[in-house]
Design brief:
Blueprint lengths: L7 E7 L2 E9 L40 E6 L2 E5 L1 H6 L7 E9 L8 E9 L4 H14 L1 E9 L2 E10 L2 E7 L8 H4 L11 H12 L12 H15 L17 H8 L12 H19 L13
Parallel strand pairs: 1-5
Antiparallel strand pairs: 1-2, 2-6, 3-4, 5-7, 6-9, 7-8, 8-9
Family: Belongs to the prokaryotic Ku family.
GO molecular function: double-stranded DNA binding
Organism: Rhizobium paranaense
Protein backbone atom coordinates (compact mmCIF):
# COMPACT_ATOMS: atom_id res chain seq x y z
CA UNK A 1 0.00 0.00 0.00
CA UNK A 2 1.45 3.35 -1.07
CA UNK A 3 1.98 5.83 1.76
CA UNK A 4 -0.13 8.97 1.48
CA UNK A 5 1.55 12.07 0.12
CA UNK A 6 1.83 15.01 2.50
CA UNK A 7 -0.05 18.16 1.43
CA UNK A 8 2.23 20.40 3.47
CA UNK A 9 5.36 20.14 5.58
CA UNK A 10 6.52 22.51 8.25
CA UNK A 11 6.92 22.93 11.99
CA UNK A 12 4.67 23.15 15.03
CA UNK A 13 6.05 25.48 17.67
CA UNK A 14 4.89 25.92 21.27
CA UNK A 15 7.02 28.01 23.60
CA UNK A 16 10.62 27.46 22.53
CA UNK A 17 9.93 23.89 21.36
CA UNK A 18 9.60 23.27 17.62
CA UNK A 19 9.40 20.02 15.70
CA UNK A 20 8.77 19.02 12.05
CA UNK A 21 5.34 17.74 10.99
CA UNK A 22 3.62 16.56 7.85
CA UNK A 23 0.02 17.48 7.05
CA UNK A 24 -2.35 15.10 5.26
CA UNK A 25 -5.89 15.62 3.98
CA UNK A 26 -8.36 13.99 6.39
CA UNK A 27 -11.47 14.24 4.22
CA UNK A 28 -11.70 14.11 0.44
CA UNK A 29 -14.42 13.98 -2.19
CA UNK A 30 -12.12 12.39 -4.80
CA UNK A 31 -13.82 8.99 -4.38
CA UNK A 32 -17.21 10.34 -5.36
CA UNK A 33 -18.63 9.46 -8.76
CA UNK A 34 -17.80 12.20 -11.27
CA UNK A 35 -19.44 12.91 -14.63
CA UNK A 36 -18.08 14.33 -17.87
CA UNK A 37 -20.16 16.59 -20.07
CA UNK A 38 -20.64 15.15 -23.55
CA UNK A 39 -22.03 16.25 -26.87
CA UNK A 40 -25.26 14.26 -27.15
CA UNK A 41 -24.95 14.06 -30.97
CA UNK A 42 -21.31 12.90 -31.21
CA UNK A 43 -20.67 11.38 -27.80
CA UNK A 44 -17.48 13.46 -27.53
CA UNK A 45 -16.48 15.39 -24.43
CA UNK A 46 -17.02 19.12 -24.52
CA UNK A 47 -14.50 21.62 -23.14
CA UNK A 48 -15.10 24.83 -21.27
CA UNK A 49 -14.18 28.00 -23.10
CA UNK A 50 -13.94 31.59 -21.90
CA UNK A 51 -15.54 34.12 -24.23
CA UNK A 52 -15.83 37.89 -24.20
CA UNK A 53 -19.25 38.78 -22.77
CA UNK A 54 -19.72 41.59 -25.34
CA UNK A 55 -18.04 40.38 -28.53
CA UNK A 56 -18.53 36.65 -28.01
CA UNK A 57 -14.94 36.00 -29.14
CA UNK A 58 -12.87 33.32 -27.36
CA UNK A 59 -10.28 34.69 -24.90
CA UNK A 60 -7.00 32.79 -24.70
CA UNK A 61 -5.39 32.04 -21.32
CA UNK A 62 -2.60 34.59 -21.76
CA UNK A 63 -5.21 37.32 -22.28
CA UNK A 64 -7.20 36.47 -19.18
CA UNK A 65 -6.66 38.69 -16.13
CA UNK A 66 -8.37 39.03 -12.76
CA UNK A 67 -10.58 42.02 -12.05
CA UNK A 68 -12.50 43.37 -9.07
CA UNK A 69 -15.80 45.10 -9.90
CA UNK A 70 -16.01 48.54 -8.25
CA UNK A 71 -19.30 49.50 -9.87
CA UNK A 72 -21.55 48.23 -12.65
CA UNK A 73 -19.28 47.45 -15.60
CA UNK A 74 -16.12 49.01 -14.12
CA UNK A 75 -13.26 46.89 -12.82
CA UNK A 76 -9.89 47.21 -11.13
CA UNK A 77 -7.47 44.99 -13.06
CA UNK A 78 -5.08 42.85 -10.98
CA UNK A 79 -2.11 41.19 -12.63
CA UNK A 80 -1.05 37.70 -11.53
CA UNK A 81 2.21 39.05 -10.09
CA UNK A 82 0.32 41.61 -8.00
CA UNK A 83 -2.01 38.95 -6.58
CA UNK A 84 0.96 36.68 -5.80
CA UNK A 85 2.72 39.52 -3.99
CA UNK A 86 -0.30 39.94 -1.70
CA UNK A 87 0.09 36.39 -0.35
CA UNK A 88 1.63 36.58 3.16
CA UNK A 89 5.17 35.31 3.52
CA UNK A 90 5.42 31.90 5.11
CA UNK A 91 8.07 30.57 7.46
CA UNK A 92 6.40 27.13 7.40
CA UNK A 93 5.74 27.30 11.14
CA UNK A 94 2.46 26.71 12.94
CA UNK A 95 2.81 28.92 15.98
CA UNK A 96 0.57 27.83 18.86
CA UNK A 97 -0.87 31.00 20.38
CA UNK A 98 -3.03 29.52 23.12
CA UNK A 99 -4.40 26.32 24.63
CA UNK A 100 -8.16 26.33 25.22
CA UNK A 101 -10.77 23.83 26.50
CA UNK A 102 -11.76 21.44 23.72
CA UNK A 103 -15.44 22.39 23.85
CA UNK A 104 -14.98 26.17 23.70
CA UNK A 105 -15.00 26.57 19.90
CA UNK A 106 -18.39 26.70 18.17
CA UNK A 107 -18.25 24.06 15.42
CA UNK A 108 -19.87 26.41 12.89
CA UNK A 109 -16.33 27.82 12.58
CA UNK A 110 -14.88 24.45 11.51
CA UNK A 111 -13.77 24.35 7.88
CA UNK A 112 -11.60 21.41 6.74
CA UNK A 113 -9.81 18.71 8.78
CA UNK A 114 -6.19 17.64 8.33
CA UNK A 115 -4.03 15.03 10.03
CA UNK A 116 -0.65 15.94 11.51
CA UNK A 117 2.08 13.33 11.94
CA UNK A 118 5.71 13.74 13.00
CA UNK A 119 8.05 14.22 10.04
CA UNK A 120 11.52 12.63 10.31
CA UNK A 121 13.04 13.60 13.65
CA UNK A 122 10.85 15.19 16.29
CA UNK A 123 8.65 12.30 17.43
CA UNK A 124 9.43 12.87 21.10
CA UNK A 125 8.32 16.50 21.05
CA UNK A 126 5.27 15.51 18.97
CA UNK A 127 4.22 12.89 21.52
CA UNK A 128 4.87 15.32 24.36
CA UNK A 129 2.45 17.87 22.88
CA UNK A 130 -0.16 15.21 22.01
CA UNK A 131 -0.15 13.52 25.42
CA UNK A 132 -0.01 16.82 27.28
CA UNK A 133 -3.12 18.06 25.50
CA UNK A 134 -4.88 14.74 26.11
CA UNK A 135 -4.28 14.87 29.86
CA UNK A 136 -5.23 18.54 30.09
CA UNK A 137 -8.23 18.08 27.77
CA UNK A 138 -7.27 21.14 25.75
CA UNK A 139 -6.93 22.09 22.09
CA UNK A 140 -4.36 24.43 20.54
CA UNK A 141 -5.05 27.56 18.50
CA UNK A 142 -2.32 28.10 15.91
CA UNK A 143 -1.76 30.19 12.79
CA UNK A 144 0.33 29.85 9.67
CA UNK A 145 0.26 30.50 5.93
CA UNK A 146 -1.35 27.41 4.45
CA UNK A 147 -2.29 27.06 0.78
CA UNK A 148 -1.49 30.73 0.02
CA UNK A 149 -3.60 32.17 2.86
CA UNK A 150 -2.99 32.98 6.50
CA UNK A 151 -5.16 30.46 8.32
CA UNK A 152 -6.17 29.74 11.89
CA UNK A 153 -6.25 26.08 12.95
CA UNK A 154 -7.67 24.28 15.95
CA UNK A 155 -5.32 21.36 16.75
CA UNK A 156 -6.51 18.44 18.91
CA UNK A 157 -5.19 14.99 19.87
CA UNK A 158 -6.52 12.29 17.56
CA UNK A 159 -5.51 8.66 17.98
CA UNK A 160 -1.75 8.36 17.60
CA UNK A 161 -1.45 11.81 16.08
CA UNK A 162 -3.08 15.21 15.88
CA UNK A 163 -5.95 16.57 13.83
CA UNK A 164 -6.06 20.20 12.81
CA UNK A 165 -9.20 21.90 11.53
CA UNK A 166 -8.89 25.14 9.61
CA UNK A 167 -11.33 27.68 11.02
CA UNK A 168 -13.60 30.05 9.16
CA UNK A 169 -12.95 33.71 9.82
CA UNK A 170 -15.56 35.60 11.79
CA UNK A 171 -16.76 37.53 8.73
CA UNK A 172 -17.37 34.22 6.91
CA UNK A 173 -19.77 32.85 9.54
CA UNK A 174 -23.30 34.19 9.25
CA UNK A 175 -25.18 35.20 12.34
CA UNK A 176 -27.87 32.79 13.52
CA UNK A 177 -30.17 35.63 14.59
CA UNK A 178 -31.67 36.10 11.12
CA UNK A 179 -32.08 32.35 10.61
CA UNK A 180 -34.05 32.04 13.86
CA UNK A 181 -35.81 35.39 13.65
CA UNK A 182 -39.20 33.86 12.77
CA UNK A 183 -39.11 31.30 15.58
CA UNK A 184 -42.29 31.60 17.69
CA UNK A 185 -41.79 32.09 21.42
CA UNK A 186 -43.41 28.90 22.71
CA UNK A 187 -42.93 27.17 26.03
CA UNK A 188 -43.13 23.38 25.94
CA UNK A 189 -43.87 21.71 29.27
CA UNK A 190 -45.94 19.03 30.96
CA UNK A 191 -46.65 15.72 29.25
CA UNK A 192 -45.15 16.83 25.93
CA UNK A 193 -41.77 17.62 27.46
CA UNK A 194 -41.73 14.42 29.54
CA UNK A 195 -42.56 12.29 26.49
CA UNK A 196 -39.84 14.01 24.46
CA UNK A 197 -37.29 13.36 27.23
CA UNK A 198 -38.39 9.70 27.37
CA UNK A 199 -37.97 9.28 23.59
CA UNK A 200 -34.52 10.89 23.71
CA UNK A 201 -33.41 8.57 26.50
CA UNK A 202 -34.52 5.47 24.55
CA UNK A 203 -32.71 6.62 21.38
CA UNK A 204 -29.26 7.08 22.92
CA UNK A 205 -26.40 5.67 20.89
CA UNK A 206 -22.91 6.34 19.56
CA UNK A 207 -21.73 7.86 16.29
CA UNK A 208 -20.45 5.20 13.92
CA UNK A 209 -19.80 6.64 10.43
CA UNK A 210 -19.86 3.12 8.93
CA UNK A 211 -23.59 2.94 9.67
CA UNK A 212 -24.37 5.85 7.35
CA UNK A 213 -24.38 5.13 3.63
CA UNK A 214 -24.17 7.61 0.78
CA UNK A 215 -27.38 6.45 -0.87
CA UNK A 216 -27.00 8.85 -3.79
CA UNK A 217 -23.57 7.43 -4.69
CA UNK A 218 -24.90 3.87 -4.38
CA UNK A 219 -27.92 4.66 -6.56
CA UNK A 220 -25.79 6.32 -9.26
CA UNK A 221 -23.29 3.43 -9.23
CA UNK A 222 -26.16 0.96 -9.69
CA UNK A 223 -27.55 3.11 -12.52
CA UNK A 224 -24.17 3.14 -14.31
CA UNK A 225 -23.83 -0.63 -13.89
CA UNK A 226 -27.34 -1.18 -15.27
CA UNK A 227 -26.59 1.02 -18.28
CA UNK A 228 -23.42 -0.96 -19.02
CA UNK A 229 -25.33 -4.25 -18.80
CA UNK A 230 -28.22 -2.93 -20.89
CA UNK A 231 -30.71 -3.16 -18.05
CA UNK A 232 -33.31 -0.66 -16.95
CA UNK A 233 -33.90 -0.08 -13.29
CA UNK A 234 -37.47 -0.29 -12.00
CA UNK A 235 -38.98 3.06 -11.17
CA UNK A 236 -39.29 3.67 -7.50
CA UNK A 237 -42.66 4.57 -6.06
CA UNK A 238 -42.86 7.99 -4.55
CA UNK A 239 -43.09 7.77 -0.76
CA UNK A 240 -46.51 8.70 0.63
CA UNK A 241 -46.74 12.26 1.79
CA UNK A 242 -46.72 12.59 5.53
CA UNK A 243 -49.97 13.70 7.05
CA UNK A 244 -50.21 16.48 9.59
CA UNK A 245 -50.60 14.91 13.00
CA UNK A 246 -51.38 15.96 16.50
CA UNK A 247 -48.01 16.56 18.19
CA UNK A 248 -49.03 15.08 21.53
CA UNK A 249 -50.51 11.96 19.93
CA UNK A 250 -47.41 11.57 17.73
CA UNK A 251 -45.22 11.76 20.83
CA UNK A 252 -47.35 9.13 22.57
CA UNK A 253 -47.08 6.79 19.59
CA UNK A 254 -43.31 7.38 19.36
CA UNK A 255 -42.98 6.48 23.04
CA UNK A 256 -44.89 3.25 22.42
CA UNK A 257 -47.87 4.35 24.47
CA UNK A 258 -51.40 3.22 23.66
CA UNK A 259 -54.01 5.71 22.59
CA UNK A 260 -55.23 7.89 25.43
CA UNK A 261 -58.26 6.65 27.37
CA UNK A 262 -61.62 7.76 26.10
CA UNK A 263 -62.98 10.90 27.68
CA UNK A 264 -65.45 10.45 30.51
CA UNK A 265 -69.14 10.68 29.47
CA UNK A 266 -70.62 14.10 30.05
CA UNK A 267 -73.85 14.66 31.98
CA UNK A 268 -75.68 15.42 28.75
CA UNK A 269 -74.56 12.11 27.24
CA UNK A 270 -75.59 10.21 30.40
CA UNK A 271 -79.08 11.77 30.39
CA UNK A 272 -79.46 11.06 26.69
CA UNK A 273 -78.52 7.42 27.31
CA UNK A 274 -81.03 7.07 30.15
CA UNK A 275 -83.75 8.59 27.98
CA UNK A 276 -83.05 6.06 25.22
CA UNK A 277 -83.20 3.19 27.73
CA UNK A 278 -86.63 4.37 29.05
CA UNK A 279 -87.97 4.62 25.51
CA UNK A 280 -86.76 1.10 24.72
CA UNK A 281 -88.42 -0.36 27.87
CA UNK A 282 -91.73 1.43 27.16
CA UNK A 283 -91.74 0.11 23.62
CA UNK A 284 -91.11 -3.44 24.80
CA UNK A 285 -94.04 -3.32 27.33
CA UNK A 286 -96.68 -2.26 24.75
CA UNK A 287 -99.19 -5.03 23.62
CA UNK A 288 -98.34 -6.47 20.24
CA UNK A 289 -100.57 -6.07 17.19
CA UNK A 290 -102.88 -8.94 16.02
CA UNK A 291 -100.41 -9.83 13.35
CA UNK A 292 -97.91 -10.50 16.06
CA UNK A 293 -100.20 -12.53 18.48
CA UNK A 294 -99.82 -16.27 18.96
CA UNK A 295 -102.09 -18.46 16.82
CA UNK A 296 -104.71 -20.54 18.62
CA UNK A 297 -104.17 -24.25 18.73
CA UNK A 298 -106.22 -26.02 16.19
Amino acid sequence: MVAPRANWKGYIKFGEVAFPVALYTAASSSERIAFNTLNRKTGNRVRREFVDSETGDPVEREDQVKGFEIEDGRYVVLEAEEVAAAVPESDKTLKIEAFIPCDKVDDVYFDKPYYFAPDKMGSDAFKLLRDGMKKSNVAAIARTVLFRRLRTLLIRPHGKGLVGSTLNFDYEVRSSEKAFDEMPDLKIEGEMLELAKHILSTKKGIFDPKQFDDRYEEAVAELVKAKIEGRTLPKKKAPPASKPSDLLQALRESAGMSAPAKTKPTAANVNAGKSRQKTARATASKPRSSGGQHRRAG
